[in-house]
Amino acid sequence: MKIRKLDHISISTDCLEETKRFYCDLLGMEEGFRPQLKTTGYWLYAGEDALIHLVERGSGDPDGESTTREKADTNDIIESGMDDHIAMSVEDSSGLVQYMKDNDVAYWDRLLADRGLYQVFIRDPNGVILELNDYAPALDKIDPMVVQGKN
User: Fold this and answer.
1) Under a CB-based contact definition with an 8 Å cutoff, are residues 134 and 110 in contact?
2) CB 132 within 8 A of CB 93
3) pLDDT digits over 44-56, tens only?
């Protein structure tokens, strides 16, 4: 696997609309396309790039409680977007997933079919989520746990 670039940052917030206005009004970002996700939020764009993902805290939890976890275990990885995280664009994600399977490394993955995006989520030793985005996945070499959106 090869990291290509920092992809985006994600911010979980209790003040979604205020945070959106802050980034749009101050930095000139614009609300844009956001795939069908389980959480409520916005993707804020600078040109064609969605650089900031805002997620309403608790919107992905059926009980409406905060889903942000401190020092969470790698075994509890679920759909990201609820936690602050670092996202990087990568190549050859199928090789990374095979490595994690071979070495019993906990991960969670999904294919966002309406965007053609394969995502792999892992936690570092500090509990920080890394979101690894492959925009040209080898579809014949992956078997995502979740497929969302339309083909």
Assistant:
1) no
2) yes
3) 999 999 999 999 9
Angle at 48 between CA 57 and CA 19, to 5 degrees: 30
| Calpha distance 95→142 (Å, rounded) | 9
For residues 52-72, give the mean pLDDT.
64
Q: How many CA atoms lie within 13 A of 105 on its CB side?
A: 16
What pLDDT does 66 receive? 44
Residue 144 CB partners (closer than 8 Å, separation 6+): 109, 110, 111, 118
Give the integer Cα–Cα distance in Å for 54 and 45: 11
Q: Has residue 38 got a pLDDT over 80?
A: yes
Q: What angle do CA 150, 40, 72 make, to 5 degrees?
A: 100
